[in-house]
Design goal:
Largest sheet of chain A: 7 strands, mixed
Number of helices of chain A: 13
Number of domains of chain A: 2
Structural class of chain A: alpha/beta
CATH architecture of the largest domain in chain A: 3-Layer(aba) Sandwich
Order of helices and strands of chain A: EHEHEHEHEHEHEEHEHEHEHHEEHHEE
Number of strands of chain A: 15
Largest interface: A-B, 72 and 72 residues
Radius of gyration of chain A: 22 Å
Strand content of chain A: 15-25%
Shape of chain A: elongated
CATH topology of the largest domain in chain A: Rossmann fold
CATH class of the largest domain in chain A: Alpha Beta
Distance between the termini of chain A: 17 Å
Helix content of chain A: 25-40%
Oligomer: homodimer
Chain lengths: 411, 411
């Protein structure tokens, strides 16, 4: 296979602290290989492709590209947009017009479905194109990979926050010594589970963790909270935003749906706060970190950042060999400590599949995780990223968004 | 004045990231001076004194004392407890019984009132005792001091979080591009104001900041949000939990009161979210960091940590000279960059007085702060604390709580 033609890289969906590490890996690997074409960055993800909005990544300053390694958020911009049938046709048309032969899509489940559809469409159309998916999700719910880039950093920040706010809670004698933290994760409890890493002794937070993988019973929950509170004099509870009742309905769901038809979550902490206050009779205070949990590069996992960079580079290496219709995945090797190396898996096996926390990693009482989970998660949060600061704040970088048209990009 | 007699140090109220730095300063300065008596730590603040619950701080391992410099929360424990008249009598009785001649109280407005009452009572009783208040509050609302230990670290973490979640917000095109962050601060807006440090360009978060110092008008608020959203396509709003309407009533206040009779706040973000969604018609997502903002030692301000240590040491130095009834304060010197040195102020001038953000540091539109505020706050967040980590998480330390009785402490 020739290495002619241009490339497009796009970021999709919710950011992670390290999604730009993958972008950096793609750009640096592209520039150091013998690709003859130009690498374009789609602005705001797939919307950028549909709306012909790109930047030429080879024109970026080297230090800004390198700066992506310590900058959270989506440097190219991303979107949440459900593609319609005609959009797929348009994508292929734009790719053909721009002479795009390589498409790198950094995203989660929905994005791997999109990448797979583009791959299939190109095949049907006999348009020679290499499509490679690059995993990204704080939710850690992509299948066929040991874990996902973005998870380790969110897990590290959440565990550190539970550690710190747990020490805070334990220290203060007052009338609101029940703490509730609501954590992201629509259908998989990986993030909520990760807060268990903060706990070293029985008194340490968190004391109770509730995951969407097992049905949530209000009565059992109240019993657990009461028991912990009576024993310790305080209680720290972590709940995944996506917990469901016996019949699979979300404990809290606003009436709205997001653009993929998923129920929009939020407000669960308030519901459980009221439940505890009315039934246990003790005041509850809530921490709802929101998007802070997916953006906290200031305390990101170095392991995660390096692995996110690695999948970006690996995607380009695979593409240079003409491998298409795949997602880069992680394989863990524990023969000598923890190491992680890249593999790949067919997009069709990943698209729209959610990997959940194995039931055997959840305790019998359904209110904590087992040691096996801890062993799995511990290596993923190791190390810190060296973020430069200016005047006491992280000195994050931006890509320059050249306003000149890219219509001159040769096809 | 002789340096005979024992000392008691206690921590009060809500923790800060650096309150243990002040404790460390007190212990280390006590141990390195010629005090003949023992330094006792009251467990859970003033409650420890009332309930005869102390630890002997001279028996602590040196590395645990040194570890206080990077450990958040209250290492001795604190409480929220409004002292009754008979409690004051009891305090003095306990101090006499234990031969306590020095009392160091680390706390905020309410605590400085308590310290002052103890000081007055000892005077009336002709009991020779030296009482020194050590300022501590993330709210930065103590008067007669340039700023308060604890503020810089909370401000730094909040500004970093707004910076990171602002980048997150800007990047993602979706249907909820209005972000609301609720920040602590009952009657003073110092913390909400500090998030302005994150902003370098017009597009940067935060775009709007609302403080309790000026009345909050829902209509003006909605107008501001609408205008920003139309201009940028997204909007990042920071509100202080204590904002009030024209007649001084909290915009949100649950029916409960805390033990000092202050209204308990929380839930404001939800109220404003609904307001915006119904009137502007755009979905809003909230970040409510809760106690994370006062516990985040993992990204604390080194300036703040060092100054918190300094006030602890200074308190003991003042006590060694017999100065009683005072609080250590900060004076700023900007003759050659920023430097800060300790001064002291009478407790009676500090007790129960709240220092608010000067009105001239709030813009005419009442929706942001001026450059003067930025100049004031910028130096306070500089530098990071070197926190050791273990397995990817901060390796915080604990004091050993010896269970043996302290009745043997000689009076």
């Amino acid at each position: 296979m020739s290495m002619k033609g241009n490339g497009v890289v796009a970021q999709s969906g919710g950011p992670t602290a390290v999604i730009n590490n993958s972008l950096c890996g793609v750009i640096q690997e592209w520039l150091s290989n013998n690709f003859e074409g130009t690498l374009l960055g789609a602005i705001h993800g797939i919307r950028g492709v549909l709306e012909d909005s790109f930047i030429d990544l080879s024109r970026q300053k080297k230090e800004n590209i390198e700066g992506l390694k310590f900058t959270p958020g989506t440097a190219l911009g991303s979107c949440r947009y459900k593609l319609r049938e005609e959009d797929y046709r348009k994508l292929l048309r734009v790719f053909k017009e721009k002479g795009v032969r390589y498409f790198f899509y950094i995203g989660g489940n929905d994005s791997m479905d999109t990448a797979n559809r583009v791959h299939q469409l190109a095949l049907e159309d006999n348009y020679e194109m290499t499509v490679v998916g690059i995993p990204k999700t704080i939710d850690n719910d992509l299948p066929c990979t040991d874990h996902c880039p973005g998870y380790g950093s969110a897990a590290k920040f959440l565990a550190a926050t539970v550690l710190e706010t747990g020490i805070d809670l334990k220290g203060v004698l007052n009338n609101n010594r029940i703490k509730l933290m609501e954590v992201m994760g629509r259908n998989a409890g990986w993030l909520a589970a990760s807060t268990a890493l903060a706990r070293r002794t029985e008194e340490d937070a968190p004391h109770l963790i509730y995951l969407p993988e097992v049905p949530f019973s209000k009565e059992r929950f109240l019993h657990d909270v009461q028991e912990t509170y009576q024993k310790l004099g305080f209680a720290y509870i972590v709940v995944s935003e996506g917990i469901v009742d016996e019949s699979g309905r979300y404990i809290f769901s606003s009436s709205g749906k997001d653009s993929f038809g998923h129920s929009e979550l939020g407000g669960l902490a308030g519901v459980l706060k009221e439940l505890i206050e009315s039934r246990v009779g003790t005041k509850v205070r809530c921490n709802v970190l929101g998007t802070a949990q997916r953006a906290a590069m200031h305390f990101a996992s170095r392991t995660d950042a390096e692995e996110a960079y690695m999948v970006g580079k690996e995607a380009v290496r695979l593409a240079s060999r003409g491998t298409s219709g795949i997602m880069v995945a992680f394989v863990r090797d524990e023969s000598a400590g923890y190491t992680c190396f890249p593999a790949n898996v067919e997009l069709s096996k990943v698209a729209n599949v959610e990997k959940k926390v194995p039931l055997e990693w959840i305790n019998a009482e359904h209110n904590f995780v087992t040691e096996e989970f801890i062993r799995y998660a511990r290596p993923l949060i190791r190390g810190e990223v060296d973020v430069p600061t200016r005047d006491g704040l992280p000195d994050y970088r931006e890509l320059e968004k050249y306003s000149d048209s890219l219509s001159a990009v040769k096809s």
